[in-house]
Each structure stands twice: as structure tokens, then as C-alpha cells.
TrEMBL record:
It is found in: Cell membrane. Its main location: membrane. This is Cytochrome c oxidase assembly protein. Keywords: Cell membrane, Membrane, Transmembrane, Transmembrane helix. The chain crosses the membrane at residues 30-49, 61-78, 90-108, 120-142, 162-187. It is a multi-pass membrane protein. One of its GO terms (cellular component) is plasma membrane. The keyword Membrane applies. It holds the Pfam family Caa3_CtaG.
């Protein structure tokens, strides 16, 4: 099962990177594939291996330490200047997507290994909140925020709005499922249920 999970995560990475160059809609699809789909699959697939960051550095790779790191990466790359740079340069786009994947992996890896599962639930909840806020801000902007070329025959504002919807739907579903799975483990475990 672990091997299949790892393989699924690996297969998703180039798909996300290929989509990332297709306007804001493609960017958001690539972004969500990296942080919300490939990253948790890679974290689960690499658990217990030498690439398991939380197992190697348990005091540094914690949910509440990785959540702000992931937030800084996501919000930083959505600043118009950096977003436009990623649209204009293949190297910048690859750096952006690699940082999305790495920060997403570290967050999910920390959540999987959290000794206090409630910290993992909290980190996923906070991540869901900041992703939702960013998606809403991008989607409700009265004008196009980015200079990149729109895709799929959309104008720049419609492309931006569709990208925001993808961020809201995929991000919300991924972090909700992850948080609920962790919450179910907490409720099943009497050791984490103080009386």
C-alpha cells in the first residue's frame, strides 16, 4: 500500500507542473496538486524511510512549525510580482512548484508524525483557513491581479476566478479529509482523550 501511495504522489507531480503553465487556472490546479494531493501521498509513502523528515528531525518538523512555513510559501508566491515572475520564467515556475511541493510535504509529514494528533488537526485547520482566505481574496478581486496569459479561452479575470474556485474546492476537501481522519484517530484513542 505504501508503495502505491508513493507512486501516486510521484505521478501527480509532473502533471501539476505541466498544468502550472496554463494561466491562473492551470497555476492553481498545479498548486493544489502539489500541496493538497501529491504532498500528502508522498508524506504517507515516504513515512519510515530515510526521506521521512519528521522522523529524522522530530523537534523541528512539527505541525505548528510547518504550517506557517507552508503559509509563507503559498502567500509569497501569490504576490503579483512573484506570480508574474513564475508566469514569465520556466525556472521561476519550477522553483515555485518545487517550493509548493516541499512545504506541502513537510506540513503533511509533520501532521502524520505528530505525537499529539490534535496539533496536526490544528495545523490542517489553520492551513485550510489561510488557503480559503487567499482563494476568496483572489476570486473576489474586482480586477485581474496578475499579468500572465489567461488560458482555456478565458479573459484574465475569469481565469483568475476559476483558479480561485479550484483552490477553494481542492484545498478545502484535502485539508478537511485529513483533519477528519486525524480527528477520528483521536476519538478512537483513549490515551489522547482526557477524562
Amino acid at each position: 500500500m505504501r508503495r502505491a501511495t508513493l507512486l501516486a504522489g510521484i505521478v501527480l507531480v509532473p502533471l501539476g507542473w505541466a498544468l502550472a503553465g496554463l494561466g491562473m487556472t492551470g497555476h492553481m490546479a498545479g498548486h493544489m496538486i502539489a500541496v493538497a494531493l501529491a504532498a500528502p501521498l508522498l508524506a504517507a509513502g515516504l513515512a519510515g524511510t530515510r526521506l521521512d523528515a519528521a522522523a529524522r528531525f522530530p523537534r523541528r518538523v512539527t505541525p505548528m512549525a510547518m504550517m506557517p512555513l507552508e503559509a509563507a510559501v503559498v502567500w509569497g508566491w501569490h504576490l503579483p510580482l512573484l506570480r508574474d515572475l513564475a508566469d514569465a520564467s520556466l525556472l521561476a515556475m519550477l522553483a515555485e512548484q518545487a517550493m509548493f511541493l516541499a512545504s506541502g510535504y513537510l506540513l503533511w509529514n509533520a501532521v502524520i508524525h505528530a505525537p499529539q494528533r490534535a496539533a496536526g488537526v490544528g495545523a490542517l485547520l489553520l492551513t485550510s483557513m489561510h488557503m480559503t482566505l487567499l482563494g476568496v481574496l483572489i476570486g473576489l478581486a474586482p480586477r485581474a491581479l496578475y499579468c500572465g496569459s489567461p488560458a482555456f479561452g478565458l479573459d484574465a479575470l475569469a481565469d483568475q476566478q476559476l483558479g480561485a474556485v479550484i483552490m477553494l474546492l481542492v484545498g478545502a476537501a484535502s485539508y478537511l479529509v485529513g483533519g477528519l481522519a486525524l480527528l477520528a484517530l483521536i476519538l478512537k484513542s483513549p490515551a489522547e482523550n482526557p477524562a
